[in-house]
Amino acid sequence: MNGPRLPGAGPTQAVQELPPVVGALFGRLPAFPGSVLFAAGLNVALRPHLPEDVKATLLNRHLRIRVRDAGVAFDVAWLGTRFAPRPRAGTPDLEIAAGAADMVAMMRRETDPDTLFFGRRLTMEGDTELALLVKNTLDALEITLPDPHPAAVLRWLREQAGRGPFR
C-alpha cells in the first residue's frame, strides 16, 4: 500500500497513505463516537503517566488529533482527572495532524516527530507553547504501545486495566 512519495524524500521515506476511498468512508462517520474512544484510549495509555504540571497546563484545553488520510479527527480535553471527548466545534487550542502511517510510527517510536514536522508530514496548529509541552511530554514518557493488531491491542488493554482504575 505504498502511497505517493514526498518531494525530496529518500528511497526509505516513502509515505504510506490510506486509499482515498477509506478517507471518504471514514469522513462520513459521526465524529463524536471516535472522540469518545480516543479519550478512553488516552485515559488508559497516558493518564497514569502525566506529571502534575502537565495536567495543570492541559486543564480544559481543546486538543484535536486529525488523521488526514483517514478523514477523521478526535477532539478531547483534559478535565483535571481524565481526558473527555469534546464536540467538534470552534477552533481547538492545538491541532496535531498527520497521515495514519506517520501517526502509528510516532506512537510506536519508529519515527521522530521532529523529522515529520520539518518534512511537513506532521503539522501542529494553535498554541505554540502547548504544542511544545505536548511534544516534550510524549517524548519523555516511556510507554510501550502494542502491535496494532486487534488481539494485541485487547491484550494490552487488559494488562493496563490490571494496573489501575479506568475512571
Describe the structure.
Helix content is 41%, strand content 16%. It is α+β, with helices and mostly antiparallel strands. The chain has a 5-stranded mixed sheet with strand order 3-2-1-4-5. The longest helix is centred in the first third of the chain and has 15 residues, at 31-45.
The largest sheet has its strands arranged as: 3-2-1-4-5
How many helix segments?
7
- Helix proportion range: 40-55%
Instruction: Characterize the biggest β-sheet.
Output: 5 strands, mixed
- Strand percentage: 15-25%
Element pattern in H and E: HHHEEEEHHEHH
> Structural class of the secondary structure composition?
alpha+beta
Overall geometry: globular
Tell me the radius of gyration: 16 Å
| Alpha carbon gap, first and last residue | 38 Å
> How many DSSP E strands?
5
Averaged pLDDT = 82
Q: Uncertain segments of ≥5 residues (pLDDT<50)? A: 1-13
Give the arrangement of secondary structure elements.
Elements: H1 20-26, H2 31-45, H3 52-58, E1 62-67, E2 72-78, E3 83-85, E4 94-98, H4 100-107, H5 113-118, E5 122-126, H6 128-140, H7 150-161
Parallel strand pairs: 1-4
Antiparallel strand pairs: 1-2, 2-3, 4-5
